[in-house]
Amino acid sequence: MDVIGVTREMTADLVERAYRTGVFPMAAPEHGVITWHRPDPRAIIPLQDLHIPRRLARTMRSRRFEVTFDRDFPAVMRGCAEGRPVWISEDFHRIYGDLHKQGKAHSVEVWSDAQLVGGLYGVHLGSAFFAESKFHRKRDASKVALAALATHLRERGFALLEVQYLTEHLAQFGTVEVRDHEYVRLLRAALAVERQFA
Question: Could you tell me the domains of the chain?
């Protein structure tokens, strides 16, 4: 169990402080609480060893999709909340929206024929990016979003891309698991260096 705390309320400042200490929130609206998580091990995508599967690279080169950044953060959050257990509560939409306005949360949008068909969002502090959630309405759209994000971060000199839990979907990108003490070391180093997302 990786839950280390439960609160009734959540603020943008509390969320930022949590990420800085290796913790992230999830809503449990059926209980009216926020649960705070610190997985051990933790999944990260090593940006210098990023692996983009060959078929996905072909899809990206085909220009079937258009990728943008921060064009429609609220729509990406709504997409991520579709058809899921409701851990992205209304408080999440409001608070991560506030972080986005502060330049501390960002979205990746994937478009097809001018329609939003996939994307992801997360939090950016220092040279660390914490990927929160992704969605797709067309095959491969969320994979394109993640590959585009990782490439974008690597080009801008980011040090850490955290993706919470290792899944089969994430493994294809070279995702690895690190123990908590190693994650904390990587996190501190990444927070000490400022990088611009845009």
Answer: 3-191 (3.40.630.70)
Strand ranges of the sheet holding 42-44, from the earlier edge strand across to the other edge: 66-69, 105-112, 115-125, 128-136, 160-164, 42-44, 176-178
Q: Environment class of residue 137 by beta-carbon count within 10 Å: exposed (0-12), middle (13-18) or buried (19+)?
A: middle
How far is Cα 82 from Cα 66, in angstroms, rounded to an integer?
Answer: 21
What is the strand order of the sheet 24-28 is part of? 3-7, 33-37, 24-28
Predicted confidence (pLDDT) per residue in 133-182, tens digit: 999 999 999 999 999 999 999 999 999 999 999 998 899 999 999 999 99
Q: Point out which residues pair with 25 in neighbouring strands.
A: 36
d(CA 62, CA 188): 38
Tokens read off for 28: 């449990």
CA distance 60 to 72: 21
